[in-house]
Amino acid sequence: MSREQELATAPSGVESELATAPFSAAIADAERLIASADFAETDADLAEGYDYLAGSISAILQLVRAHNKAHPYFVTSTGPYSKMGLDNPDTIYYHAVVEPDATYVVRGRRGSTTDLSFQVLCGEYSADSVPDGDSAFDDRRLTIAADGTFELTFGPARDDAPDDYFVLPDGATTLAVREVYSDWDAQRGLVTIERTDTAGTAPDEPSLERVKRRYATAAKMLTSRIHTWFNFPKWFYLDEPVNTFTAPRPTPGGLATQFSSVGHFDLPEDKAMIVTVPDSDAPYQGFQLGSLWYISLDYVNHQTSLTSAQAQTDPDGKIRMVISARNPGVANWVETTGRRRGILQFRWQRTDDPIGVELGPTAEVVDLDEVAARLPFYDENRIDEQGWAARIAARQRAFARRMLA
Description:
The protein is of the alpha+beta class and about 400 residues long. The protein folds into three domains: about 15-70 and about 205-230, no CATH class; about 85-200, Jelly Rolls (Sandwich), CATH 2.60.120; about 235-405, Jelly Rolls. Helix content is about 25%, strand content about 25%. The protein contains seven helices and 18 strands. The protein has helices at about 5-10, 20-35, 45-65, 210-235, 370-375, 380, 385-405, and strands at about 75, 90-95, 105-110, 115-120, 130-140, 150-155, 165, 170-180, 190-195, 250, 260-265, 270-280, 285-290, 305, 320-325, 335, 340-350, 360-365. The strands form four sheets. The protein has a five-stranded antiparallel beta sheet with strand order 1-2-8-4-5, with no helix packed on it. Strands 10-11-17-13-14 form a five-stranded antiparallel beta sheet, with no helix packed on it. The longest helix has 29 residues, at about 210-235.
């Protein structure tokens, strides 16, 4: 009798022997958490929560299978189909596992995107902490050849370290890479990693015990992931007055050259928020909406985010965006996609100087039918249905090219 036949005919208690049992139990625990979320007010909110859970399950299984310390490679950390942590619509995220006593060579080719940054993380995000970002820098610290290629090394401290060598701090666990678009038509780059003492060798084939451990690890990661990102809005957003923004500040978590301004909105269908922000000199300036699941909204088929390159700037040098459920007929409409409540997030990156209060956003909530009177350059901002469809089509095409590049 095969193993499958034995389990099929055994008493129900024997099911605990299944390798997938811990992960199945974690899925059930996560579903209960999703179903009981106090901010899920509508069926649409709950449907988003279940879709978020599906993406989390998919991502966790990918991550545990890619967790190979001896032969690391870059995997997509978060994306449009496995969202977490208020993923930036303008960013491609990669990460690889590292160990502080090993040496790694990272090679790549710089694309035409606005920013390319590297960050060494120590520890993991959890429900009560943010990992230390002990090493965080962007590609301005690299030697980049005329053809866009580069090579850098991460490893233990050494006295004879060459150029483009970066020390892995004690406790290092992860090398994170972010490639950030301002213009979505920019060209994506390339990045690879190899561990020097295992290059040219093959990893061990996974044993039965190792596969079982993967499922147990995946179970812990799934419940931790759901708990962690449930808490993030409470830590950094929901204590702020509603429909306002914080002053710009360095982003928690150690990201290089990034400032952020955050808030949360509560807008009935007949209301709109007018957000005014200077078009700064920062190479990347982006804004997005998120749901209370702490994930981005659909940014491909809806304009739920805008960069300074995508937004229309008024003659006085300011960008004025209108956040609402219903279309106000302006180019800088940011869609809530039917949500009454959600997250507000500005980011500035690749900055040489701090982003001061004078460069931060201001917000005003008005009746939807008052929007035209409140916009000083309303006539220049108007857009018809054809023009709006063209904006969405441009987003869809640029995103498709990004994912296939």
